[in-house]
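Figure 2 data, in text form.
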Amino acid sequence: MIIMIMSGPDDGQKIYLSHRDGKGQVSVDGIWSLVFGRRDECDINIPFDTQISRQHAILRVLPDDVFWLIDVGSLNGTFVGETRVEQPTLLHRGQLFRLGRTWMRVQPEVGERNGYD
């Protein structure tokens, strides 16, 4: 799985992710969770955007390639398209989402079979 940064100083940067690389947590029911934020300890660290909270949002990746985006009480909000995330929100591959001022999207890696490669 790739998180593509679509704006800001890291525009065009690809963040390659796999549950095997130690990022995030995989629960006993097979759900992989990744934390976004400015803190170094976050799985997806975005330090350049001061509108992003220290711990901003969680992306949950279900085994059947379903993505859920959850805001964790950020000050400036999490958005899917132009809609503010108020509760867990379904996120489709390629769909734009925004944390603070930074636009991103989840996209498959070439040759990827599921959300865990």
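Caption note: The two ends are 6 Å apart (CA to CA).
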